[in-house]
């Protein structure tokens, strides 16, 4: 349970630092109210004198205005947190404030504590904390007019030092990502660990490997091999979590993608897809396959050589696996479109040698002929029967992407023609509803355009 412990410690450090940042941001913009410092943290070991001072002060002296995303009027006596937008209403002469859009920070007050939280992300990154500290320091450099103000600023000084210490402590804790990964890998690799402990270790690793550096750490620590090996596990929770870690580690991380391919991950993933497994396992495996193939023509060629399209065709037609169909089609569609976009970009980059190499690599990925061979010209139309708009949209886009190869088969498919005219009617009506609600370029309009495009292109010679 060491990782949990570390996380708790980290969270504690973080919340202390956050609390201080919040406090200081408020102070920094409230020159006349050093009483903001009356807010204290119970667990801190302030000296006796300071504690008395802190307790004696009335925290209600400072009225902090918490901006929302709407402009609101605030009174001259009120303090406004840093990062807020403040303006003067020329008609009323009143000052108005709203929350800074970029920050997405929410300010809170609870008794005599106050602080802020980031509403975009559940936690602050060390970078955001440093930014906050920097902003506050910049605020400190403002010219100070009176002695009272100077005292106010001086009164704020010690806590800044404390804040810095917290930042350092936080930095030290931040540097333990590698240590945390080592511990998790040990927990996972330890024969004494229960399956549950191993799964927990994998899920915590999954959280860490989203970061590019940590993905690479996973490789250098020998974790990639452990994870690939775990795909072979007999326990479905281990299989599933291993696929999840793998997928997250390779996402947008080319060097890790290469390592995973070289480590034989694709073969193992395809085996999992080709053999009877619970749908929840296959979902994670499909995620890992998609992440592994993305922007990686070598892996895509490999996928074709290993019979990946056939594996997906069989899975697509497996009774009970209907919920996987959209995911499967997405993997294929993304590959088709990726290659198409690369060759379009080629027009302006014909002299760039790296681009030439990329084109060469994608030229080796010959997906469309394999899709035709494996029956996808008639499999994709089946998805149009889905009641879900998203699924129909994906199907229509894929049908259009395969038009050149599949046109003859499309034309000979009476079910497809029937589906298209049915969808055309449905979406024409839905578009009217959308327009009644004032939406001109709505989602249904987008789908209708795809249906229309299909109908027109199928009528071409
Ligand atoms: C597993 O547990 C046994 C007995 O508690 C202990 O002797 C051994 O060192 C442990 N192995 C590992 C790898 O921690
Ligand atoms: C996993 O454990 C084995 C022995 O139990 C060890 O040889 C191997 O280095 C460990 N791998 C990692 C990545 O910790
Ligand atoms: C993993 O699974 C494959 C196919 O199921 C099998 O051939 C291989 O021996 C297994 N490897 C290990 C290390 O269990």
From TrEMBL:
Q: Name one GO cellular component term.
A: endoplasmic reticulum lumen
* Sequence segments annotated as region (Disordered): 38-58
Known function: Required for protein translocation and folding in the endoplasmic reticulum (ER). Functions as a nucleotide exchange factor for the ER lumenal chaperone HSPA5.
- The residues that cross the membrane are none
Family stated for the protein in its record: Belongs to the SIL1 family.
According to the entry, every stretch annotated as the Nucleotide exchange factor Fes1 domain falls at 146-218
Q: What is this protein called?
A: Nucleotide exchange factor SIL1
Write out the GO MF terms: adenyl-nucleotide exchange factor activity
Q: Mention one GO biological process in which this protein takes part, according to its record.
A: protein transport
Q: List, alphabetically, the SUPFAM superfamilies matched.
A: ARM repeat
Q: Where's it mainly located?
A: endoplasmic reticulum
Q: InterPro entries per the record?
A: ARM-like (IPR011989), ARM-type_fold (IPR016024), Hsp70_NEF-Inhibitors (IPR050693), Nucleotide_exch_fac_Fes1 (IPR013918)
Q: State the source organism's domain of life.
A: Eukaryota
| Bias-annotated ranges (Basic and acidic residues) | 41-51
Q: Where in the cell is it found?
A: Endoplasmic reticulum lumen
Q: Signal peptide position in this chain?
A: 1-28
Its lineage reads: Eukaryota, Metazoa, Chordata, Craniata, Vertebrata
Q: Which UniProt keywords apply?
A: Endoplasmic reticulum, Glycoprotein, Protein transport, Signal, Translocation, Transport
């Amino acid at each position: 349970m060491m990782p949990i412990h570390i996380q708790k410690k980290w969270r504690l450090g973080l919340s202390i630092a956050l609390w201080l940042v919040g406090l200081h941001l408020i102070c920094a913009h409230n020159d006349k109210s050093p009483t903001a410092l009356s807010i204290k943290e119970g667990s801190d070991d302030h000296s006796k004198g300071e504690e008395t001072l802190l307790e004696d002060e009335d925290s209600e002296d400072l009225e902090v205005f918490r901006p929302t995303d709407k402009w609101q009027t605030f009174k001259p006596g009120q303090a406004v947190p840093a990062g807020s937008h403040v303006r003067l209403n020329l008609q009323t002469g009143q000052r108005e404030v709203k929350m800074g859009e970029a920050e997405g920070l929410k300010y809170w007050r609870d008794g005599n504590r106050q602080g802020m939280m980031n509403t975009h992300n559940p936690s602050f990154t060390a970078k955001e904390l440093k930014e906050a500290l920097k902003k506050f320091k910049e605020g400190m450099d403002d010219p100070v007019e009176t002695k009272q103000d100077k005292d106010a600023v001086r009164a704020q000084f010690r806590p800044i030092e404390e804040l810095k210490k917290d930042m350092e402590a936080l930095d030290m804790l931040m540097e333990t990502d590698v240590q945390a990964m080592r511990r998790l890998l040990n927990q996972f690799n330890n024969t004494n660990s229960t399956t549950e402990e191993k799964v927990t270790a994998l899920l915590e690793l999954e959280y860490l490997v989203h970061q590019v550096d940590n993905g690479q750490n996973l490789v250098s620590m020998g974790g990639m091999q452990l994870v690939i090996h775990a795909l072979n596990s007999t326990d479905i929770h281990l299989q599933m979590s291993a696929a999840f870690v793998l997928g997250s580690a390779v996402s947008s991380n080319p060097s890790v993608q290469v390592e995973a391919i070289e480590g034989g991950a694709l073969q193992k993933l395809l085996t999992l897809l080709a053999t009877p497994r619970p749908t929840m396992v296959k979902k994670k495996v499909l995620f890992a396959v998609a992440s592994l193939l993305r922007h990686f023509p070598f892996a895509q060629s490999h996928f074709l050589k290993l019979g990946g399209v056939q594996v997906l065709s069989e899975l697509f037609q497996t009774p009970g696996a209907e919920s996987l169909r959209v995911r499967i089609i997405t993997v294929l569609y993304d590959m088709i479109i990726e290659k198409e976009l690369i060759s379009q970009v080629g027009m302006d980059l014909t002299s760039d040698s790296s681009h030439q190499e990329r084109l060469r690599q994608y030229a080796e990925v010959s997906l469309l002929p394999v899709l035709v061979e494996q029956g996808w010209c008639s499999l994709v139309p089946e998805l149009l029967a889905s009641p879900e708009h998203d699924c129909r949209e994906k199907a229509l886009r894929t049908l259009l992407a395969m038009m050149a190869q599949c046109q003859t088969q499309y034309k000979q498919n009476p079910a497809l023609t029937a589906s298209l005219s049915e969808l055309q009617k449905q979406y024409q009506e839905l578009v009217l509803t959308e327009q009644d609600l004032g939406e001109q370029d709505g989602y249904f309009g987008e789908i209708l355009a795809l249906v229309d495009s299909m109908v027109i292109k199928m009528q071409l010679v």
